Amino acid sequence: MADKRCFVTIGATASFNGLVKAVLEPEFITELQRAGYSHLRVQYGDHEGEEIFKAKKAQLRETLVVDGFNITGFGFNKAGLREEMVAVKGHSIESEGMIISHAGSGSILDGLRVGVPLVVVPNTDLLHNHQVELAEVLAEQQYVVYGKLDDLPAAIEDVEKLRRRMRDWPPLRSGEEKYKHGLADVMAEEMGWQID
Amino acid sequence: MEEDHYYREDKATQASLQPSLRPTNSLLPNLSSTSHFLILMITLTLILLGIIWFRLVSILSRGPAKPRPRPRHGLPSPPTHLLIILGSGGHTAEMLNMLSQTPNLPDDFTYRTYVVSSGDAFSALKAHEFEQSLLANVGSLSSIPDGTEPNYDVVTVHRARKVHQSILTTPISSLRCLWDCIAVLRGTHPDLSAKKSLDGRRRLRRPAPDLILTNGPGTGVIVILASIVLRFFGDAALLPEQRSSSSAQTGGQMRSIFIESWARVRTLSLSGRLLRPFVDRFIVQWPQLAETGASKVEYIGPLVT
Questions:
Q1: pTM
Q2: What angle do CA A7, A12, A13 make, to 5 degrees?
Q3: Could B280 and A190 be called an inter-chain contact, meaning their C-beta atoms sit closer than 8 Å?
Q4: ipTM (interface predicted TM)
Q5: Within this chain, do residues B45 and B118 fall inside the same structural domain, yes or no?
Q6: Which domains does chain A have, with CATH numbers?
Q7: Which segments constitute the Glycosyl transferase family 28 C-terminal domain (chain A) (predicted)?
Q8: CA nearest A13 in B: which residue?
């Protein structure tokens, strides 16, 4: 059986224990198994995240049949998460999994670049969270699935829909714009150079 | 005739007023010397404020850059200096991502300064990695002569405000940061590598940057503020060798581009709101932000990839 992965990242700046808990709920795991996933891998962050991860994983063993379903995790990876994300991409469309990410722009961009279906879950604990806006607009334009902490299993089905009609990031430039090379052209203009 | 009549009447009124005016006149010397001093001070302050205002308006409303030829690879041309502000994880990643899409960066800008704030070793490391990737690209063309001086510097300035820092001490730390940023722009900051003069004896100061790029970290606000301070005082704030350097005529103008973070969709960031009146260009990455109709805001397509 192909290794179909679900990779969860909470980012490197703030803890997001709500997300660690939500992806280790029995309902979520059951739904993952039904959708053909074989591996859940969680980047849980600091010490507190690790405690929650271990406790939840132990609980799951008692309540669910998790044979043949891997649950692994780690705190941080200084080298970045690109390799983890590429592993989710898999070798064929059957083994392509999904990424569940906090709404930090760096993690979202990493996921979009790899081109794997991405669920973005804003951290509602953070005040004045402009990240919600980013997640909303990206979901509207069908780049990502907007994940809600209280109903994460629903995102799994949405991901399968997104997989079929996913858009590539970055969008193509129309070629009619004034600044074909983007920022480089504005920089040239400010230097007084002619734009080619 | 009529004029004459009025004139006469005027004289009459004046004459009749004369006695009553006298006491008023004699009042003037009675005004205390402190109120004289106060009036003088207020007048001087108003004049000074007026001068400052006009100077600010004149430096902030400069037109587009003067046309000049773009440096071409291998051809001798005056040095060009780009200053890039990095900061805190997301900003650094976005900035370097945008720069990596800029073709011929080392040809266009012969010298690059990266400004990071103290304690942000991550951004400093990323800047060095980015420069190495530039070098690797150029190296493949085997065009870099041996023994050339490094043509970039990573400069660390005091942090303007740490997360959770008390509001009372913030002005002090911001001033320290401003002091550092002014030193960076004037080329006197100790982190800047020294350029030797042609005879190899004198250390030459770096010319002020031609262009400043920032995408929102707090340090960027202070660097732009520092550039406004320097431009306010004009040539007097620059060192003699900066003034006489060839780039002083066409470059060293510290033109500035603010790029709002990709993460900002519907509302401008605090840095963006603060800097909008002071930068030459203000670019956002979502059309929703440009549609608010705020002046200067430009959307030119998504810039991070």
A1: 0.81
A2: 135
A3: yes
A4: 0.82
A5: no
A6: 5-165 (3.40.50.2000), 170-196 (no CATH)
A7: 6-160
A8: B89
